[in-house]
Each structure stands twice: as C-alpha cells, then as structure tokens.
Please model this.
Amino acid sequence: MIENGYLVTGMSCGHCAQSVTEEITAVSGVENVRVDVETGHVKVQSTHALDEAAVRAAVEEAGYTYGGLVALV
Model:
C-alpha cells in the first residue's frame, strides 16, 4: 500500500470533503481517501503510485484547487 498526501484548497464543509473523496476515489488504484477540511490535507492510500495529473484532474473536477504533494505526518 502506498500513501501520499495532497493539499486541496477551497474546501469549507463536509460536502466539500465528500466531493473531493468521491472524485479521487474514482482514480485507478485508489483504496482509501481521508480529507481534513480544516488543513486542506488529503491522505490517499493506493495500490500503486498514482499519476499526479490524475489526482489534480480529480480535485479540479470536484471544483477545488490542487495545491500539490505534502508530507504525511
């Protein structure tokens, strides 16, 4: 299992988190998505390395701004 963290800006509520979760979950290989609306951090577990462009496209499809990879803590 591979874990990556991403920064997503523009989220403000549970519905925002649900939208981002649904779109990222649709990316091939994604097993689990956890969204922290307060920090904008999105933790993604996947079966293989994800194409960052696919993650960016999923975030943008949900209506939010992709801020790039972040360190997992």
Notes: Residues 28 and 50 are 8 Å apart (CA to CA).
